[in-house]
Amino acid sequence: MADPINAVQNAAEHVTSRIEHVKDQLIKFASDYGMQVIGGIIILIIGFFVSRWVGKVLQGWLDRQELEPPVKTLFVRLARLIVMIFTLVMVLDRFGVPIAALVTSIGVAGVGISLALQGVLGNLVAGLTIIFTKPFRVGEYVELAGVNGQVTAIDLFSTKLAHADLSRVVIPNRKIIGEILHNYGAIRQLDLSVGVGYRTKPAEALAVVNEILARNPRVLKKPAPVVGIASLGDSSIVIAIKPWTSLADFGPVGAEIYQAVLDEFNAKKIEIPFPQREVRMLHQG
User: Fold this and answer.
1) What is the pLDDT of residues 130-178, one digit of tens each?
2) Total structural domains in the chain?
3) Is residue 275 one of the residues assigned to a domain?
4) In whole angstroms, how far apart are CA 15 and each of 2, 28, 29, 125?
5) Across 7-21, 32-46, 47-61, which has the greatest mean pLDDT?
6) Are 226 and 240 in contact (CB under 8 A)?
7) Contact predicate 149/161, CB 8 Å
8) Residues contacting residue 33 through CB under 8 Å, at least 6 positions apart
9) What is the pLDDT of residue 32?
10) pLDDT confidence bin for 274, thresholds 50/70/90
11) Shared domain check, 167 and 105
12) Is the same domain home to 107 and 150?
């Protein structure tokens, strides 16, 4: 039976031997690559600060150009990324890594990554197309891809719309390119109507409607509101009321105009007829 004390001593000697071996390896590594490691760390630190400096300088120059914010952000990030890649290449070269083989490997990996990220790259290309061609801008009201809303942000990968019900719509940019786009701009035109009786003088009713629109502060003076007879219905003369308003006022102004029309027509005894039909019964003998 082995002596327990000798077993403990042997284990301790083995651990001590392993520690000494690791220590010798660290000392050897430090002596062989210590300066390279220190130099690599210094190069990385310098590269980091240089990339930040390049980013700030480029950002200051881009701020004076007429470019969309996402484009500026992209250019700044690309510039910083290029500086950091160049810095990493210098560090790897200092450690003796074959740069040509590394570049080849990165190229092969890039092809695989691009195939895996086709959707993401498609959104990016579409986002740059939207930003440079400017089919719509932030703040405009658009209808596209089966949805509508006010544009709140145009990013590199998606476009965000604010809907009338206070919800948010996020559209991938690749879904926008090639689709039919209806851009309302920064103002919208209401499409309202009211019917008056055939005994009413149309000029009087039109004058009342124009007066109501002129009093409403939400209605824009330019472009001028469109008011006129739209059609002759079965039981009424239909008056079209099409004023222009800002996007923020588009929702409430319709209700205000209808309320004012109802009050003014009642006050001036202008009839708003209800639908009616005349039915005749023919008696056969």
Assistant:
1) 888 888 988 899 998 888 899 998 888 889 999 878 899 999 998 888 8
2) 3
3) no
4) 19, 20, 21, 59
5) 47-61
6) yes
7) yes
8) 95
9) 56
10) confident
11) no
12) no
Q: Residue 4: is its pLDDT beyond 80?
A: no
Distance of alpha carbon 170 from alpha carbon 268, whole angstroms: 49
Is residue 233 domain-shared with residue 247, that is, in the same domain? Answer: yes
Q: Are strands 141-144 and 168-172 parallel, antiparallel or unpaired?
A: unpaired
Q: Which is it for strands 141-144 and 147-154: parallel, antiparallel or unpaired?
A: antiparallel
Query: Which residues does 186 contact at the CB level (< 8 Å), separation at least 6?
Result: 139, 140, 141, 246, 247
Asked if residue 245 is part of any domain, the answer here is yes
> Is 246 domain-assigned?
yes
**Residue-number span of the structural domain to which 170 is assigned:** 135-185
Residues contacting 220, CB < 8 A, separation 6+:
187, 243, 244, 245, 246
Assess contact for 239 and 229: CB atoms under 8 A: yes
Helix axes of 69-94 and 118-133: crossing angle, nearest 10 degrees: 130
Residue that has been written with the tokens 């470019």 in this structure: 67
